[in-house]
Amino acid sequence: MNRRNFLKYLAFLGANFAFTKDILAQSKKELAISEGKDYEKITKNAIDALGGISKFVKKGDVVVIKPNIGWDRKPEEGANTHPLVVKAVTEECLKAGARKVKIFDRTCNDPRRCYVNSGMANLLQNIKGVELKHLDNEKYKNYKINGVFIKEWELYEEAINCDVYINIPVAKHHGLTGLTLALKNIMGIMGGNRGYIHREIEESLCDFNSFVKIHLHIVDATRILLRNGPQGGGVKDVKILNTVLASTDPVLADAYATTLFGIKPEEISITKRAYERGLGEININRAKIIKV
User: Which helix (H) or strand (E) holds 154?
Assistant: First the structure.
């Protein structure tokens, strides 16, 4: 190879290396981290850091927002998603032109008490275009999951058939799984005997998260429940962090949220198995972290 051709070859390699770097940079999963005492503001900031709600919600869309409202606990007790975080996401969806925003959860305690004492009813039930609803047993439909462990299951039809599904878990301790975060919050749309999935909890949650299309995950870490989860035992179990995380990748969101508890992501078996099954990125260093 003469000198001229050799230089062309080096230029070719350099151009392709730069191209490859650009592709890798663009393909990095993104995680937005927003901190502050104004929970509505930091929630909106986290969404904006990912490109804004209009990246997900279009005019006329029906949006399902799935927080954790499972427990008869007050907001400061950390068992449920903070209502101000949910309100901020709801307002952003309506601003983007959503035709309707539906908010619901299959609760563990009495649903009426959960919706009221969590603060959700007070903040959300009178907003035009918002339907804060209790689940209707007739709207569960059997779906072929064809997963590793779960082959079929009853899921809430409105969560499956909506235009946009936004998952808003609270970050907290869980006695069985260590933590409950984005991946586990999907249990709130499951019908049937949810206790059955604990036989193979990691595979089951991966099966459901593989089947259900969730567009955005927003993890409420404004205050985290350190122990006695998932229900909690009062404010003594809570640590205030004033933080909200947002990502399209549930594994990445869970991985980072896990570090807030002083735990390595791979120590949480659900997160690790979801990564192994290709549901997202567990290595935070491989992600694009956006702090706002």
Answer: strand 152-156
Token pair, residue 126, equals: 């009178």
Q: Vertex 66, ends 62 and 68: CA angle to 5°?
A: 160
- Cα separation values, 231 from 227, 239, 276, Å: 9, 15, 29
CB atoms < 10 A from the CB of 28, how many?
Answer: 13
CB 263 within 8 A of CB 252: no
Mutual angle of helices 83-95 and 39-49, in 10-degree steps = 50
**Domain locations in the chain?**
29-291
pTM of the model: 0.91
Q: Where does the pLDDT of residue 23 fall: very low under 50, low under 70, confident under 90, or very high at 90 and above?
A: very low
Cα dihedral 258→284→80→138 (10° resolution): -120
| 34, 42 Cβ separation under 8 angstroms | yes
Fold of 29-291: Rossmann fold (3.40.50)
